[in-house]
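for the recovery benchmark. tokens below, seq after
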């Protein structure tokens, strides 16, 4: 596994192919795919976010900007596996009749759309008892959700899919990893399912492969995503200053 790891900003990124990543993920643990904006902002401002990445069992390089920097500047290619591509890969491997999944959704609307997409795509009906509508978690600090923890302990699913936003999902995933009595696969793929179900801008596979998913999101909701992705360029500064090392936490 050590040969398949590339360090960046103190985070150990997986540097293999999609099929092997899916195989590793199904063994259990916390799986994260931090975005460019998350690495640019939360990594240096939220200690709990950083700890979530450091304690992840598998960290995927979702950020095209990070991968381009590693390839063209540092000459250390890093395979990009976006949260969208990875989620599709994992969903195709699930035995929907035998394996129990659990889903943390941001709201009722997205929960309904996501359930419909899964039913139409895989012929699987997600019971309401396997869906948890997340409360509004704090933007910073540790996350503790005892109600969610109790429901998962009761159901003991083999796979938990956290579909809330980046910066939150990683901290929630860490809370579950550290407090569950068993070791399921905890997938922090953010809004990836919303891209597929139509709740967010649809991103074709070829657009994702060209690292242009951010552009479609900006076109779809410019007031939300243009400021967010402009802030992501701070990642270039962090990579230039710290390379493989962890940048300091700042208030």
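predicted aa per position
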């Amino acid at each position: 596994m050590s040969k398949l790891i590339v360090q960046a900003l103190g985070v150990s990124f997986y540097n293999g192919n999609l099929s092997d990543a899916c195989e590793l993920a199904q063994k259990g643990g916390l799986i994260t795919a931090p975005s460019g904006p998350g690495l640019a902002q939360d990594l240096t401002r939220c200690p709990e976010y950083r700890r979530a990445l450091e304690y992840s069992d598998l960290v995927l390089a979702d950020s095209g900007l990070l991968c381009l920097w590693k390839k063209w500047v540092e000459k250390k290619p890093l395979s990009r596996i976006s949260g969208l591509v990875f989620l599709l890969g994992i969903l195709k491997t699930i035995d929907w009749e035998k394996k129990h999944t659990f889903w943390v959704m941001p709201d009722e609307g997205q929960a309904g759309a996501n359930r419909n997409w899964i039913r139409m795509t895989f012929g699987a009906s997600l019971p309401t008892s396997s869906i948890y509508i997340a409360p509004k978690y704090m933007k910073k600090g540790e996350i503790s959700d005892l109600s969610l923890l109790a429901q998962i302990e009761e159901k003991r699913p083999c796979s938990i899919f956290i579909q809330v936003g980046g910066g939150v999902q990683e901290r929630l995933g860490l809370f579950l990893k550290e407090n569950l009595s068993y070791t399921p696969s905890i997938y922090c793929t953010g809004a990836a399912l919303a891209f597929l179900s139509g709740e967010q801008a649809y991103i074709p596979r070829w657009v994702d492969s060209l690292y242009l998913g951010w552009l479609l999101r900006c076109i779809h909701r410019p007031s939300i995503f243009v400021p967010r992705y402009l802030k992501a360029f701070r990642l270039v500064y962090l990579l230039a200053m710290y390379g493989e090392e962890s940048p300091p936490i700042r208030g």
